[in-house]
Fold each of these.
Amino acid sequence: MLPTENRLRRREDFATAVRRGRRAGRPLLVVHLRSGSTDPHAPGECVPPARAGFVVSKAVGNAVTRNLVKRRLRHLMRDRLSGLTPGSLVVVRALPGAGEAGHDELTGDLDAALRRLLGGAAHGRAKGKAPR
């Protein structure tokens, strides 16, 4: 289970991570990361811990499948939040194939997406491509 202080719950926080954060797509999921050291809702307060939220739509499967995917993703993110800067917002969006995927496949895609986001890829631009 993901501790309460590490859960992303507010609609505004989800929107901030998705709209202003960087994105890394994989076959089973898309990860949005908004790195930051301050919480816009608590000026002057101490730096909050990194928080994660999950989006699993009906395209992934029925309610049982969606909840299984969410539980797996929460478990995986619990161990990875310590590697993020304090105040970071992470949204993990499961894609339709995630319902049939195994735990190892989800682990591989999540790790690859986080490596790409934390490795400093030039804002999603692939190597060798010229800027537009």
Amino acid sequence: MHTRWRWVLFGLGIAVAAIGPLAAKDGPWYAYLFGGLWFLMGATVAWRTFNLGTKLTAEGLTSHGLDHQTTVEWCDVQGFEPKRSRNLVLFHTITPAAQLRRGTHVLTELSLLSIKKDFVPRRTAQQVTELEQALAKHRKTCSVCGTQPKALAPPQGIVGRLRARLRELMGGNGDRSIAR
């Protein structure tokens, strides 16, 4: 899952990388330095955009941004919801967010900017539906967080059952009142 920003950032990175050698051409020593830095910055942005987006794996969600990589395990996710967030520092948009046991993880790399006001909520709702389907698929097969029945205790013989029952009866009062 990725957005068109991946291609916009790739083009921007290539453009900045191309400007670097042009700035260094036939210049003084500092033109070579700054041209090399421009080339390095542009090439880094272009290279990092190849992994930009959210990948659904068997272990969970892997979010790749320009400057970070975050993995959230499926068993930690309780659900998904659309949430308002900031994209590209100052633009507000709607993006899917994973509701975790401890907090929320906003998938900012899936956020959209569009001049069509009805497109962003519809696309975000589609992404939330895809994420919920992937979570439901995980829960069908996971014995930790899913609905699979847990393994039963091995069957005991008559002596084992009698011991367990006696331990239960003779285990003391616990938090029951003595007066009945």
Amino acid sequence: MSEHSPRPALSPVVAGCWRLAEWGWSAPERLRWIEQCLERGVTTFDHADIYGGYTAEALFGEALARAPHLRARLQLVSKCGIRLVDAARPGHRVKSYDTSAAHLVASVDNSLRALQTDHLDLLLIHRPDPLMRPAEVADAVAQLKAAGKILDFGVSNFTMSQFAMLNQWVPLATNQIELSPLRRAPLHDGTLDQMLALDLRPMIWSPLAGGRLFSGQQPDALRVRAVLEAVAERHGVAPATVAYAWLLRHPSRPRPIVGSRRLEALDEALAAQTLTLDAETWHEIWSAGAGVEVP
């Protein structure tokens, strides 16, 4: 068993806040969505400083401030390290990455103010930075933890080697990666093997391939959709539930992020927890995505 243990204590399904600014909700409507997530056992909310052009965190924080007692029942995840060219950040000349200690600390402080909270349960570096100095990142994380501003730390979109390198300097809690029947590389490039070896649970973004699984007309999407629909009919569930069950079947115990305003989308993901696909069906879905049978 790794010294890391399968922390942090996040919910098995995570609510994604990427598009929160696009939903056009009032603060009471946003608060009601938070409450409805909690009622379903979805207690973890995934943010990034850049979401909504640096506005989504503040929209969430405004809603949460209307019921501050809810903070003890939920976990806030945020990501930083990307500098967008945006009106909210007039000093940014080109899109770039910044994992300097100054940027990490300032980003966390900005997120805490926006979210109207005193700590993040988990901070992630959003994208690998070729100029990252691991010792500097480790020092910043130590500073943030000592101040109680973050409880845990991890990364997003890191390769196996990038994760291993930074993990030598500062213990990482997770890797938030893209995975779906249409994006299978982490199954075979060592990314999920690494999570298993360290007994860490990955977080999964775009578990439905950004909606392409059910709206795309590409050959791979059409093949997978046909299999998902057939399996769904056999089990009496939604096709999306089968797609989530395909992810959850992996022994690394992935946590899918559901970035939809539709509560039905959360329910479909939650239902996958009680649908265990047999190995043959899992490989049938893999083969549909690949367009070939397994080697």
